[in-house]
TrEMBL record:
Record-annotated DUF659 domain positions: 123-191
Composition-biased stretches (Basic and acidic residues): 1-21
Protein name (Swiss-Prot/TrEMBL): DUF659 domain-containing protein
Annotated spans, Disordered: 1-28
Length: 196
């Protein structure tokens, strides 16, 4: 029985060691009054200036922790969130290019603009099963009009025009019985061989 208890204790200690440790984020900045407007002498802060009364002890100035601009914008909370997002990138080995993804930005913008106090982000299994299937169904629905091209046919149309800087462009579009669909635009300057 003692051997079993010892094994249980060892396994609990090993599992505690394997848990990710909480490492605090770097401290955020705290704004202090500029040193040019204050002089420290004899452990009191005295204002510079021509009008100093002898024997008069001015009130001690307190360091400003939150300025008037920091309060409404909640800069410390923003820095905390930035640090957590950065740590997510570093710890998971995510490419920094992910920060340029519009869906990444949209997710955080949506969360910030809506009061989602009790929101818990989706977990591993939900992302890889339910949400993946939902996104796949959405893409299938969006691609449905292109699947009828084999049955009903499609017409490829091109049109030349100039952009606001007067550079020649060629538009390529497909026309189906439902609607036209833009495919791509090419610059006629760089594709002179293509035009011949």
């Amino acid at each position: 029985m003692a051997e079993l208890q010892r094994k249980i204790n060892e396994s609990e200690q090993m599992s505690k060691k394997e848990l990710p440790k909480h490492i605090p984020l770097p401290s955020t900045h705290v704004s202090y009054p500029s040193s040019s407007s204050l002089i420290r002498c004899d452990d009191s802060i005295v204002n510079k200036g021509p009008f100093r009364m002898e024997g008069f002890e001015p009130k001690r100035k307190k360091y400003v922790v939150d300025s008037a601009l920091e309060k409404p914008f909640n800069l410390q909370m923003r820095e905390q969130l930035d640090g957590e997002i950065a740590r997510m990138f570093y710890s998971a080995g995510l490419p920094f290019n992910l920060a340029r993804n519009p869906h990444y930005k949209n997710a955080f913008t949506y969360a910030c603009n809506n009061n989602l106090a009790a929101y818990v982000p989706p977990g591993y299994n939900v992302i890889r099963t339910k949400l993946l299937q939902r996104e796949r169904d959405n893409i299938e629905k969006l691609l449905e009009p292109t699947r009828v091209w084999k049955e009903k046919g499609v017409t490829l149309v091109c049109d030349g025009w100039t952009d606001p800087q007067r550079r020649p462009l060629i538009n390529f579009m497909t026309i189906t019985e439902s609607y036209p669909m833009f495919i791509k635009a090419l610059s006629a300057n760089s594709n002179a061989n293509f035009l011949l």
